[in-house]
Design brief:
Blueprint lengths: L1 H9 L31 E5 L3 H10 L6 H4 L1 E5 L6 H14 L4 E2 L4 H6 L3 E4 L3 H8 L3 E5 L20 E2 L2 H12 L3 H16 L7 H9 L1
Parallel strand pairs: 1-2, 1-4, 2-3, 4-5, 5-6
Helix pairs in contact: 2-4, 6-8
């Protein structure tokens, strides 16, 4: 996307030498329905690297009533991290925090959710493109993942600790549907600067070079 192009320009590449091909991770919204009026809105945590799910388990506060109000679903990384996921499960059990491991397809998992939690996983950005409100959370210890060079994080909020996550979710739950969608649309516009639709004309041009 445009953000990636700008980074290449900053390190010395010429504008005309950079082609934006787009990505299969881009998504158009065909049906902008949100599960808004449900008794326990679904929070979907997108696990990236292995330590994220362990740190996520450590971050959550078992004394909070948050999980009485929300359904917590974890989408484990499909490629590896089995040992870390098993270790995190023990932490959740010790804290008596109930959650579900997702068994749905990627898109079904997102469209049945109201909130997407992530840090480094691009699946979180895809969730935003599919029309769900995203929150980044500090679960990588020493990796500060700000793909947008947005120091104020005006659109996609970044939660350092559980209290910030709890307070932000409570605030979002106080919004009406129009206000919720207004935030989602601003987030989508920002993510679209990083992940654009596949540009088949540019790909064709590249093949003909």
């Amino acid at each position: 996307g445009k953000i990636a192009k700008e980074k290449f320009i900053q390190i010395g590449y010429k504008d005309n030498d950079i082609l934006i091909l787009g990505s299969s991770k881009y998504h158009e919204i065909k049906d902008f329905k949100v599960p808004f009026k449900v008794s326990r809105p679904k929070i979907l945590f997108m696990c990236g690297v292995g330590l994220e799910i362990i740190n996520f388990a450590k971050l959550l506060d078992n004394e909070s009533n948050l999980f009485n109000d929300f359904e917590l679903v974890i989408r484990e990384n499909p490629h590896s991290w089995k040992e870390e996921q098993s270790y995190a499960k023990k932490i959740f059990e010790n804290k008596n925090i109930k959650y579900n491991v997702s068994k749905l397809s990627f898109k079904d998992d997102i469209i049945t959710s109201k909130y997407i939690l992530f840090e480094t996983s691009t699946a979180g950005l895809e969730g935003i493109l599919l029309g769900r409100l995203g929150l980044q959370i500090n679960v990588t210890d020493n990796i500060y993942s700000n793909q947008f060079d947005d120091s104020n994080r005006e659109n996609i909020k970044y939660c350092i600790n559980f209290k910030q996550l709890h307070d932000k979710l409570k605030y979002y739950e106080s919004l009406n549907k129009d206000d919720y969608l207004h935030i989602v649309n601003k987030q989508r516009a920002q993510v679209n600067m990083l992940i654009e639709n596949i540009n088949y004309d540019t790909i064709k041009t590249l093949k003909e070079m």
